[in-house]
Every structure is written in structure tokens, then in C-alpha cells.
Prior knowledge:
single chain; Alpha-Beta Plaits; 2 domains; four-stranded antiparallel β-sheet; 6 helices
Amino acid sequence: MIRYAGLLRGVNVGSTRLAMADLRRLVADLGHSDVQTYLQSGNVVFGSTATDADRLARGIQQALADELGLTVPVLVRSGAELAAVADACPYAGRQDDPAKLLVAFLATAPTKAKAAALSVPGGENVEFTVTGREVHLHYPDGGYGRSRFTNAYLEKQLGVVATTRNWKSVRALRELTAS
């Protein structure tokens, strides 16, 4: 049994509303075990014997569309992948405020050219590191909410679907998916 986290993009932050009880039921109905949600922002943790995270993501995404009429991108990471992401954060050791650290999870790795061309909008102090299917983000002078270097900006610049989680959520999901 592998522990996974399903990360839904844009849930309960705009017009897309989803009760976490519905999300837990839907994921359990797909045959997954020990289903739990974290916060109200579309994080679902579950156990599965399946080993294809992309297939798991497509299954949850399709069930959301079929059963609830929601078109929501879903990204899935295993507990091992989340542990590696948390361990690889290049900014964690020099930032005391976890609100200034985030991770953008990408559906696929961007092309090398797009990753190399990614830059911070003028006048902003943001550090970032693209590592495979994640972008580690550090906002030393302020928060993510005041920046133009957002999830939507990353999606446009990198050409891939993304969903961003703050450092507190990344650490919590790591713990919830630990074997």
C-alpha cells in the first residue's frame, strides 16, 4: 500500500466550491483506503495499491467531473515524492517564516528552455528553483498574496498545469503520507 496526496488546483479559492466530505467520499468510492483531507483547499491523502500516480490523478479528476460536475486539475504525489520535495527545499534552512516558502507542484516537468527562461516580474524579490515537477519558491520580503509571481504566472510561463502549496501544507502532507 502506497500513501498518496491528491492536490486539486483552485478548489475553494474562487468560484469552484467542493466540500471536503464529498472529496473524501469520492476518493474512497474509487477504491482507495484511509482517505482524509487536509484543510479546505483540495488536499486529499489516501492509500492505494496502484503505482501510477498520473492514472490516479486522472481517475480522481474524472470522478469529480462525472459525479460533481467539476472540472478541476488534480496532481498526485506519493509520500516518498513529498518527502523528497520537502528535503530538497533550498530555502528552508535560511527562512524562519514558513509563510514565505511555497512549492508549486507541476503536472509535468517543463521543457528545459521554458525553465531556463523563467524570470521574476520586474521589481519583485522572489527566489525560485525549478526541480523536475516542482518549483520551490521563496518570498523573502513579503508574501505570495502580494506578488505577481503566482501560480497563474508559473502556468503561463512554463506551459504546464500547476498548483501551489505553502510550506506548512507541504510539511503536513509529507507527514500524512509517511509510510
